[in-house]
Design a protein that fits this description.
single chain, 321 residues, Peroxisomal Thiolase, Chain A, domain 1, 4-stranded mixed β-sheet, 11 helices, 13 strands, 24% strand, binds coenzyme A
């Protein structure tokens, strides 16, 4: 038994923030941001627009594309770092919006690797026979945890949501998932405040993302190179067996480094970072949805999805689409 992606959906908030707009907010330039990151613009949620609002739109599109109805969903997993509330989970809020009752619904928190983790969880539920039709979402409003006076970080992130429907299938499907973490790197990329630590910052609106960019960059490149090798080896595949790379969209230079590792032409790498920035857990499902809707990824092709993020966490999903 396999799990198989049978529908994808994505949603980006309407408001767009360009590099030129950012020039009026912090000491930066379109040239610097473009050259160092490949990002030209990002979408930003309205003040009253929540992560669940974005997740709902992406989920509805994925359900429609799958040909399923919401009442057939028997598992909801949402990957997010920017939940609407401390509790209930975004997955439960989303379940309510979709008017589904009773099935398991929970959030997964692995920052930018969240969607890869969530697919790994759903794949295992389906393979174990505990679910038949899973809604898996990556949704974020990163703009709400960004320090808009910190040029080191505010130029990098954006908001959005992506979703997939995964169904039990005798036909492959997800071939393997590889999930990893190493908590010793906590302080290189984190929001150093929360409910039980420096809570006053959370209450005062000072819980912001902090990052040591150059160190994160180096770790991301070497770690993603390793996960490519691990995934190919586990499946007894060669680099040339991969039709499409759907990478986490943090920085075009990190994406190019992984593509080089795979000896892959950039024509076979899905790149959305220029228009969307880093949408954390939403970036991989948004990129997947873009490539599917553009008719690039075709049924039966082999797709490698990978991500790296805070924790550190990292992982990959290899699948036949
Ligand atoms: N505009 C203009 N200058 C900026 C800037 C900005 N938005 N942000 C930083 N700078 C400056 C720095 O202050 C530094 O100036 P200095 O040399 O006078 O101190 C200079 O640019 C170079 O900074 P550096 O950190 O060496 O740049 P970099 O080449 O490493 O690029 C990142 C910075 C953040 C783009 C890059 O490190 C990166 O992408 N890191 C990974 C980030 C990431 O992907 N995080 C999420 C992982 S999921």
């Amino acid at each position: 038994m396999y799990s198989r992606v049978i529908g994808t959906g994505g949603y980006l908030p309407e408001k767009i923030l360009t590099n030129h707009d950012l020039e009026h907010i912090v000491d930066t330039s379109d040239e610097w941001i473009t050259e160092r990151t490949g990002i030209k613009k990002r979408h930003i949620a309205e003040d009253d627009q929540t992560t669940c609002d974005l997740a709902e739109q992406a989920a509805l599109r994925a359900i429609e594309a799958s040909g399923k109805t919401a009442d057939q969903i028997d598992l909801i997993v949402v990957a997010t770092t920017t939940a609407d509330k401390i509790f209930p989970s975004v997955a439960c809020l989303l379940q309510q919006r979709l008017n589904i009752h009773g099935c398991a619904a929970f959030d997964v928190q692995a920052v930018c690797t969240g969607f890869i983790y969530a697919v790994g969880v759903a794949d295992n539920f389906i393979k174990a026979g505990s679910a038949k039709c899973a809604l898996v979402v990556g949704a974020e409003t990163m703009s709400k945890i960004i320090d808009w006076s910190d040029r080191n970080t505010c130029v990098l992130f954006g908001d959005g949501a992506g979703a997939v429907i995964m169904e039990a299938s005798e036909e492959p499907g997800v071939l393997s998932t590889h999930l990893h973490a190493d908590g010793q790197f906590e302080k290189l990329l984190h929001v150093p405040a929360g409910v039980s630590h420096e809570r006053h910052k959370l209450l005062d609106g000072e819980a912001h993302l902090q990052m040591r960019g150059a160190e994160v960059f180096k770790m991301a490149v070497t770690t993603l190179g390793r996960i490519v090798d691990e995934t190919l080896e586990a499946n007894n595949m060669k680099k040339t067996d991969i039709d499409w790379l759907v990478p986490h969209q943090a920085n075009i230079r990190i994406i190019q480094a992984t593509a080089r590792k795979l000896h892959m032409n950039m024509d076979h790498v899905v790149v959305t970072v220029a228009e969307q920035g880093n949408t954390s857990a939403a970036s991989v499902p948004l990129a997947l949805d873009t490539a599917v809707r553009e008719g690039k990824i075709q049924k039966g092709q082999t797709v490698l999805m990978e991500a790296f993020g805070g924790g550190f966490t990292w992982g990959s999903v290899l699948m036949k689409y």
